[in-house]
Amino acid sequence: MSAEILQNVDTTTRATDLDLPVLRKTLPNGQFGVFTSRPVLAGEVLIVMPRGELAASPDRFTVQVGVNQHITGDQLGLAKFLNHHCDANAQMVVVADVDAPTACALQAVRDIPANHEVTFNYLTTEFDMDEKFTCNCSSLRCYREIRGFRHLSPDSQQLLVKSSQVAPHLLLLLQQ
Ligand SMILES: [Zn+2]
Hints:
This protein is of the alpha+beta class. 15% of the residues lie in helices and 27% in strands. It comes from Capsaspora owczarzaki (strain ATCC 30864).
């Protein structure tokens, strides 16, 4: 995670529902997804997640922000409905300062037109997922079995690390 990206995340304010450029929609398969409500630019912060109370272990709705720290579904707001993509158009930026009111922010990694689904790569925050699944995204670099960073091959782990989207706790956990 590059320092410049972290500098773009305002950890002192919290987006209100009114200025969020994203909203929840129902997908054709009946599940929920998060979509842009207007065009967004690369680097824009789309959802800000408060630190709140963190869980020590994951469940299917948590987002991992530390070695034993997981934001729970009720703290995630709209982020609870973010779907996975192996070549996602947004990333989770974990805020390292444990005193900051923000634990994590979702940031666009490229320009996204209005009414497009916003996704992030679960493998960039989750070390060992509670609920694994097989990905069917059409990405050339699809990881297929989404079980957490821990379960990737060393080559795939290195590729993800080079993308600069891997949360710092995954590198710490890998060394343990
Ligand atoms: Zn995939």
